[in-house]
Model the fold of this input.
Amino acid sequence: MIHGGASGIGTTATMLAKAFGAAKIITTVGSPEQQAASIKLGADVAVLYKEEDFVEAVHAATDGHGADIILDIIGGEYVARNYAAAAINGRIVQIGIIAGAAPNLDLFPMLQKRLTHIGSTLRSRTPQEKAELIAQLQTHVWPFIERGEVKPQVYQTFPLDEAAAAHHLLDSGRHIGKLVLTMVPLSSDK
Done:
């Protein structure tokens, strides 16, 4: 399961999961347009989280098994719900906490299901660690991009001086894919 299936991370994760042969891909999205886009990119099920309980949807889509891997950029109340949606021995990869800390988190379901909940961020990594990750991406991911099996989704570009508008759109959650800031080349005229 991939939370934020219409985000830049979510769209790329969906395509990569498909390219790597995931048996079933479930995403969470915020609108019918995002739902259609997520399915077009490879999701088998795209849950409208504003209308449906993603825990119930995951169990329905997996015949009660639950999600073996959950990629979460949300955090907050989703953490406990991820534990409920996860399969026995499932893995949860926390790469963001848009919704903040997990309030009143009961860890018993994590123990009961023998879950692995790991966190990852690039910010705290050394330049050497980042270089190693880039090398792994070049080996394992870049071939899918070169073959066109994975195509990063650019929703809209903005000139750098319109960064505030880009942030406004990002905060609205209406986009599908990445927002890109562009820089205007410096003029050679003096």
Helices lie at 8-19, 32-41, 54-61, 78-85, 108-113, 127-140, 142-146, 163-172. The beta strands are 26-29, 45-48, 67-72, 86-94, 116-119, 154-159, 178-182.
